[in-house]
Design brief:
The complex is a heterodimer. Chain A has helices at residues 3-16, 33-46, 59-67, 80-88, 140-151, 155-158, 168-176, 187-192, 222-233, 235-243; strands at 23-29, 51-57, 74-76, 98-103, 105-110, 131-134, 162-165, 182-186, 197-203, 209-215. By secondary structure, chain A is an alpha/beta fold. Classes of the chains: A alpha/beta, B mainly alpha.
Chain lengths: 249, 224
């Protein structure tokens, strides 16, 4: 075979890959990544013609990708505000929007640390040198944490100690590595690293941490996307979410 | 917004400038050593210190995080004995930028020193100059244009460093949030106005640096 012919065949093969009939892309909040990987797997077992590509990041990042025209079929966020913005921009079919899980925000510390946290205002004490908070402008875990710290009246005072991260799993990683003394993550995240991360306390949030999911308008596989959303909401999907510690909506 | 822009630009210049300064000294010295000294493992050393240029920045960031983190032997030693913390500091960002841009300085420096006729250096030595004087009065003046082009390229690349910096230094506004990280955050948060300002600013700086490099290259060709 001549080299240029081989290149031609390779190119054709590569361009043909994404065109499989029932391929859908699901953009899911970073905190959902493990649970959704499992859900996608068991979904593909149940529907062998279905193919799910999972794209995970902070909810704000996912929203911006969709706004800029990324080919997404299903959006699943960690807060209602981001989905409200998606709806306001006409990105989703509003009638397909459902809440499918709930979570709890926690303050967590490296498993080796001896710190305790009776109340959020104690974070101003000197033993808390570095506090990891996801970027509140684009990550729900960060905006929930900011709201809680503002309510406690310490958000401004804590600014010099705050390490801003790009998504909740980066916060979790910094806690697990002992690079920060405390960080704000979801209970389900902390549960993934039980041997490295210890939960100090639950952080009460004014708004419940609830996850909405919806089918996008721009997706080319509307029926397939709806089938995936239905699967997430089905008993099988809920069972997987429950296994990772997510609560019923 | 303009105040935030100028703080971010100044921080970026500080990080890239310090990293470049480090590399001017270390990169030039390494380039000279590799050009003039023959020793076993010279090619291997050259390969190893060129690695940062081709490795993904996230790999470097991970290496740095593991090496300099509080829980690592070296990072723990730095913190306990010297009270130096590099993770989440602008000095950490300097180390990331310096590591990534090191090959851009030492590679052209090595080539520039190799193009200097060794007979001229030997003549200077015969005429009684000490080795360091031979370096500063003969080798360096004849090689400096090639070295300078590498330095400018390294500075431009250091300004744009993103992956390794984000992992080791984080994104703390006013402390470790450099221009490229600020662009990333602005786009993620949907702040298009801020993103536009930042990308125009960084594009302008990069264009000026590239123009300076091509000016240098032309001047060099004109001379020879």
């Amino acid at each position: 075979m001549k080299p240029h012919k081989a290149v031609w065949i390779l190119l054709t093969a590569l361009t043909a890959l994404p065109a499989t009939a029932a391929d859908i892309t699901v953009s899911a909040a970073a905190s959902l990544s493990n649970a959704f990987k499992d859900i996608a797997q068991s979904y593909q077992q149940q529907y062998p013609d279905g193919r799910v590509r999972l794209n995970t990041a902070g909810s704000g990042t996912l929203l911006q990708q969709a706004v800029q025209g990324a080919p997404v079929d299903v959006l699943a966020f960690a807060d209602q505000e981001t989905m409200d913005k998606a709806a306001a921009k006409g990105l989703i079919h509003p009638q397909t929007r459902r809440n499918f899980a709930r979570n709890t925000l926690v303050a967590a510390t490296p498993a080796t640390s001896k710190l305790t946290l009776a109340q959020l205002t104690d974070l101003t004490k000197p033993q808390f040198e570095r506090i990891a908070v996801s970027n509140p402008n684009s990550v729900p875990a960060g905006s929930y944490a900011r709201a809680a710290l503002q309510k406690a009246g310490v958000w401004q005072a804590l600014q010099p100690k705050i390490i801003r991260t790009q998504h909740v799993r980066q916060t979790l990683d910094y806690i697990a590595r002992g690079e920060v003394d405390v960080g704000f993550v979801y209970r389900t995240d902390a549960a993934l690293m039980k041997n490295k991360v210890r939960i100090l306390r639950t952080v009460p949030t004014d708004k419940p941490v609830s996850y909405p999911i919806a089918v996008t308008r721009s997706g080319r596989q509307q029926a397939e996307a709806q089938r995936f959303v239905n699967y997430v909401l089905s008993p099988a999907g809920r069972a997987i979410l429950a296994r990772y510690g997510f609560k019923q909506p | 917004m303009t105040e935030a822009l100028s703080v971010t630009l100044l921080l970026s210049l500080k990080v890239a400038g310090t990293a470049t300064l480090l590399n001017i000294i270390l990169g030039t010295a390494t380039g000279f050593m590799l050009a003039r000294c023959r020793f076993p493992g010279r090619d291997l050393l050259d390969t190893l210190i060129t690695l940062p240029m081709v490795m993904p920045p996230t790999v470097l960031g991970y290496y740095l995080l593991v090496l300099l983190g509080r829980n690592s032997t070296f990072g723990g030693w730095l913190k306990d004995t010297l009270d130096i913390q590099l993770v989440f500091t602008w000095q950490g960002a300097v180390i990331a930028a310096a590591l990534v841009t090191f090959p851009l300085v030492f590679k052209p420096a090595r080539a520039a020193f190799e193009s200097v006729n060794p007979q001229l250096e030997q003549a200077a030595e015969v005429l009684g100059l000490r080795p360091w004087a031979v370096f500063f009065r003969v080798s360096l003046p004849m090689a400096w244009r090639g070295i300078l082009a590498g330095i400018l390229l390294a500075f431009a690349r250091a300004l744009g460093e993103f992956g390794a910096t984000l992992m080791i230094a984080g994104s703390i506004p006013g402390q470790t949030q450099t221009l490229s990280i600020a662009v990333y955050e602005a786009v993620q948060a949907g702040e298009d106005g801020l993103a536009n300002g930042l990308v125009l600013l960084i594009s302008a700086v990069c264009i000026v640096i590239l123009l300076a490099i091509s000016h240098l290259a032309r001047a060099r060709d004109g001379r020879s």
